[in-house]
Amino acid sequence: MLELFTYDFMQRSLFAAAMVGGLCSIIGVFVVLRGLSFVGAGTSHAAFAGVALGYLMGWPPLLLAILFGLATVWITGWVEEKGRMKLDVSIGILYTTTMALAILFIGLMKTYNAEVYGYLFGSVLSVTNEELRIVGGLSILVLGLLLTFSKELYFIAFDQEMAEASGIPARHIFFLLLTLVALTVVVSLKTVGAILVFAMILIPASTAYQLTHSLKTLTLYSAIIGVVTAVGGVLISAAWDVPSGPAIVLLATALFFCSVLLSPKGMRRPSPAHSH
Amino acid sequence: MPDSHEPIIRFDHASFGFPGVTALKDISLSIHAGEFIGVIGPNGSGKTTLCRAVLGLMAPVEGHLHIFDCACEELRCHHRAMIGYLPQKGVVDRNFPVTVLETVMMGRYGALGLFKRPGRKDREIAMEALAHVAMDGHKDTALGHLSGGQQQRVFIARALAQQPRVLLLDEPTTGLDITTQHNVLELIQHLHEELQLTVLLITHDINMIRSRVDRLVLLKTRLFAAGSPAEVLKPDILSQVYGKDLVITENDLVIVEDYHHHH
Question: Cβ of B77 and A168 within 8 Å?
């Protein structure tokens, strides 16, 4: 088992997994608390449509993933702000539309492209040095912005109107959060894949939610759980030759159910999904 | 009692609403520093719109609204921080994983501005605010573990942590038992007197606030009456707003007359 660590590809993938696990789980805190869980799911499918279009046209897939992801979250945020329809309805429409586009783009490709499917299901073990640099750069950017605006982000997650009333530029912060969600999804596409990235955002934060009543502790626990499950998942994947994405997510899910059983909060509290 | 003749909030023939819907029409009202004002009116009379306007969340479609000598649409973040706001109970998610002190510290965020981290001084201000509402012994308790009345005190402390000049309270006693209602109003009156805060209290409970306020503002889409409780709480004025069934008893209680009782 220890010899695994001596391989370059293994070091790269463990590093990528740790970064993505940490990043997803920290932004997940704000996503869960602000009630944006479904936005994460919609964005990841939109980003995947961008990847598919990139491969179809020969354009840079990650750049298109960012554009598709950002377009989705901004449209969603705009629709919510205007109060035209409920958030889950608009994201549901965009979710299915972008998935239809992805299937269309893949169908238009003349040959089978394994790399595209890598983005759908995740293939952390095949992360290249260049991808690692992109993931690293974007992670530092997203974490830096999260840290800089953490007090505002917590406040809008608690109550956006209250935050605005007390002098926080709440609308801008909300769009910043949506933008960071989109960037995080794109960063994580290669590692855990479009289908499972949503789980990496949602599960560590929901697990931590069971264990504490403090915002700061919640964020810390979520980050630890995110990094540990991502790294653990990669090791399981390498040791037993199972796909990495499902290994990470299933490990995180197992931890989540343990936390529900051990939660000091008991059954008194509603789940975070219902808290908004 | 008013300690200044300079109005800090001034509505000048201001109307508010959305295209096709007028929520408040032609409001002219000046609120002076140090006043305790009760805002009353039936459901849908525009009380919450008035509240949103004072918070700078809604600009007038006609007329003007000046807050701290600043047109409401130009209200900057640091102006907003000078208005401490207690939202209606139920609007805020009270099961959010947050401690009492973390909740009150949020009151410092707007006043601090972007890029600044709360420091020891902000913590002291937050603790002082908690002491004002007698909740300083609960600083590390989860907000969701407190009773309704205690949570209301914590939210008042958060508004105080902004070091506001105006305290704006949207139905602060709704959903509380009668003793707690009384205690919360006592606290608000105490803060008004001790901290010289201008208080705007929106409520349905006319009888509980009439002895505490300097002025009552009666809304029904437009400003129906404004003045001392004795001037506003007259049968002819109230019946126009609330309907004919409202009567004022010998001991000055406003109640709904029960027809079945008489017949």
Answer: yes
ipTM greater than cut 0.95: no
Q: Which of B18, B77, B96, B102 to probe the A interface (max A CBs under 10 A)? A: B96
- Dist. CA B210–CA B230, nearest whole Å: 9
Which residues pair with residue B64 across a beta bridge?
Answer: B12
Half-sphere exposure of A257 (CA within 13 A, CB side): 5
Q: Which residues contact A275 (CB under 8 A, 6 or more apart)?
A: A33, A35, B93, B95, B96
Helix (H) or strand (E) holding B222: strand B222-227
User: What is chain A's Cα-based Rg?
Assistant: 18
Q: Which residues of B31-55 are buried (b: 16+ CB within 10 A; e: fewer)?
A: bbbbbbbbbbbeeebbbbbbbbbbb
Is a pLDDT exceeding 50 seen at residue A269? no
Per residue in B88-132, pLDDT tens? 876 566 568 899 999 999 999 988 888 889 999 999 999 999 999
Residue B75 Ramachandran class (φ > 0 left, ψ -120 to 50 alpha, else beta):
beta
The pTM of the full predicted model, rounded to 2 decimals, is: 0.87
- State how far residue B205 is from chain A, nearest Cα, in angstroms: 24
Query: Rounded CA gap, A56 and A110, in Å?
Result: 9
